[in-house]
Structures are given as structure tokens and as C-alpha cells.
Amino acid sequence: MSASTAPNLIAAVSEARQWDRLMELAKLGAITGTDGSPGVNRACLTPLDREARRLVISWAEGLGLAVSVDEIGNLFLRHEGTDPAAAPVLTGSHMDTQPNGGRFDGIWGVIAALEAVQAIREAGVQTVRPIEVVAWTNEEGGRFAPGCMGSMAYAHYKPATAWDAVADHEGVTFRQALDEHRKAEADLSHRPLGGKPFAYLEAHIEQGPRLEAEGKDIGVVTGIQGSRWFIVEVRGETAHAGTSPVSTRRDAVQDMVRAINALNALMTDPTDVLRFTVGQIEVMPNTSNTVADVARFTIDFRHPDKELLIANGDAIEPTIRSAVKSCDVTVTERFHALPVEFDPLVTDAVQAAADAQGLASLALPSGAFHDAQFMVPLCPTGMIFVPCRKGVSHNPAEYSTPGQLAAGARVLAAALVDLANR
Ligand code: HGY
Ligand code: MN
Ligand code: MN
């Protein structure tokens, strides 16, 4: 039986149950946006993160799913198949949010996966392969840069200890936060890092405007553009703002501005495909009447074309060095994710499920990076998008309707059963 034609499966996906769980989770780290929108600030490896995980674990245990965690804190909720030895189908996303985040980015993919598995069990639909719901550690990279640490470690793209020394704004290192987190979750069964899934399918809000603008219900995601993150430190010398001659200053802020202006020129793209963002700036000593001796800024550079991503990304450091006048500079790359294409085995399953349910779909690439990016070398991988209002995300105004999210969960359920019976 092709799952997409299993009406009882589709009917078993509950719009209300999924929405209620999302609203329950949105209370954990609730914030209010400047426009009054309800958002969420729930950083990874915090007590709030653990409270949200315990809530999801309670729902999963209520379903009879087996709960486990690995050494970097990735959380797995396993639905057994008729062949427990078969490679599982993995599905999920992340539970951490941006500091000024929304109620759906990441967390919907985890709750949609839980909803899909609950519908599969309630509809009595058999799957040969086990299905594992996963919540990846630190996808956002907001507290500890870069993002996707959990999926990178799972895929052995980087060792799980690669980011031990990375510190947050309070000076807490990733290793300290992870050790505290693992102690708090010591009651959960442990599993070795990594695995060999049969396929990986992630549901996520689009975080862009296309599905809404084109009146589509489902995005059949074709791939993810490349992303490169850098941290730049400009070091000069503090001086008195009233007495030190400008001609002899080693002003870190002025050199940072020169560097960013030169990078803007390098990254100019009249076709508006290239994405270049300086999102975080720190200045020391950060007083109005002292010339700054340290300026730190982040670079988030993205492009769908591998050659251009490499060429322009490699030009960042020389461009900065030729732009600064009197300060020393260090440029460190923190994240390097090449563009990926998703596998037709998964994208076709998503397309078939959307078609069978009479949903309007659109094939499109992802501008945002996702944990799926690091699963591509491991197994056939794909994603499902649902529309979000005006494409707004990383903002409390982020919104998808209960109906849009339920349609996504129904396509996910059907595609998961399709894949788990391959
Ligand atoms: O930054 C990103 O693309 C993702 O939303 N964390
Ligand atoms: Mn996300
Ligand atoms: Mn995000």
C-alpha cells in the first residue's frame, strides 16, 4: 500500500494536537517582539532547552518510543519497525532558537515528525524500517558559533570535541555547557555518536516568501545553498578621543568600517542572489571618548554556486587586509558548508505524497542552512517546506497557520511510510 493513499494515515494526523504542542513549547522562552508578536528565545544547552526536551520526551514516552541521546546531546525518539535490524529512516530538525526567534523555526520539524509517527502508530500502518525522530544540538549557532554542531558531529564532518573552546557571551564554553547538559540528562539512555540511516527527511518552515507568494502548500526542497561564516578581529590601540591626533591613531572601528566597505564592494551582486551579512559587532573598550583598540565582527556569506562561494569566500581575508590602514587583523573561518543537492529518492517521495493529497507544490532550493546539509554525504536526504507569513523568520513575527503545518505533517507522514517500506 503506498502510504500516500492510506486515508486513515492522513486522517490520523491531528492539526490541533500538533498546534497545541507547538504553543506549549512556545511558552518555554516566550518573548514579545517589537511589533507585539509572540516569539521565543530558547538557546541550546540551557535549562529552558532541557525543559522543552523533557516535554517532547514525555510525549514520545507516552507513545512508547525509545528515547536516547548521544555524546553531543542529539536527542533520538525511535519508532520500531517490523525489521529492527533495518537501517532507520531519520526525520527531525532542531529545538534551539535564535535570541529574537519565532515559534516555528526548527521546532516544527521535530513536532511534525512526532505527529507523523503518532499518526502512523494510531493508524496501525506498518513500516519495515524503524523511524527515528531526531532533535539536533545547536543548529542555530546563536549562543555557540557555528550552527549545526549536532548534525556535523553525527555525520563525522567534525569531531564532537571540535568546538569545546567556543565561548558564549558570558564566557561559558560549549564543553562546559554540554557537560552540564549531559549531567542533567544522565537518566536518558546513551547511544554512540553517528549512524547509517536509510534516508533523512526534515520538515521546516520555508523562511522565505515564495510558497506564500505563489499560493503553494508544500515546498519540495531541491537542495541548500552554500554558507561560509568568518569572525574578524581588528586590533589597534586605545587613545584619548580629545587629544590623540587622528593621523597617528590605530583606530579599530575605523579600520573595521574600511574592511566592511571593501567587503560590500566584493560581495555586490546586481542579481541579488548572493547573501552577505555582518550581524554581530563587538567594540572594546566601547566608551564614547576612547579610540577603540579592538573591533570584532562576524561574516555570514552564502551562495548557491560552489565556485563563487569558494572564490569570493577565499577573497575575504585578502580584501580585508588591503582595506585596513593601521591595525592588525585576524580572519578565522568558523563554518564551511558547500551547496548540496537532495536525492530524488526522497524528493520524489515528498512530491508523490503532496500530489496524492492534492496539495499545490513547488520545487525550490533553501536559502537557509539546515542539519539536512550534513546528512547528504551519509544517506539520501530531502526536506519539506511549508509557507510562512511574508517569509519572515528569525523574528517573533514568524508565523504559519495550523492548517499549513498540518498539511506539512501529512505529507511528512506519507513520505516517511513510503521511505520506511523501501
Ligand atoms: O542561519 C540559518 O540559515 C538557519 O536558519 N539557522
Ligand atoms: Mn531552522
Ligand atoms: Mn534558524
TrEMBL record:
According to the record, cofactor stoichiometry and binding are noted as: Binds 2 Zn(2+) ions per subunit.
Give the binding site residues for Zn(2+) 1. H94, D105, H204
Name the Gene3D superfamilies on file. Answer: 3.30.70.360, Zn peptidases
Residues of the Peptidase M20 dimerisation domain: 223-307
Q: Which keywords does the record carry? A: Hydrolase, Metal-binding, Zinc
Q: InterPro entries of this UniProt entry?
A: Amidase_Cbmase, Bact_exopeptidase_dim_dom, Peptidase_M20, Peptidase_M20_dimer
For the keyword Cytoplasm, the answer is: no
**Stored PANTHER family:** ALLANTOATE AMIDOHYDROLASE, ALLANTOATE DEIMINASE-RELATED
Could you say which protein family the record assigns here? Answer: Belongs to the peptidase M20 family.
Q: What is this protein called?
A: M20 family metallo-hydrolase
**What organism is this sequence from?**
Roseomonas indoligenes
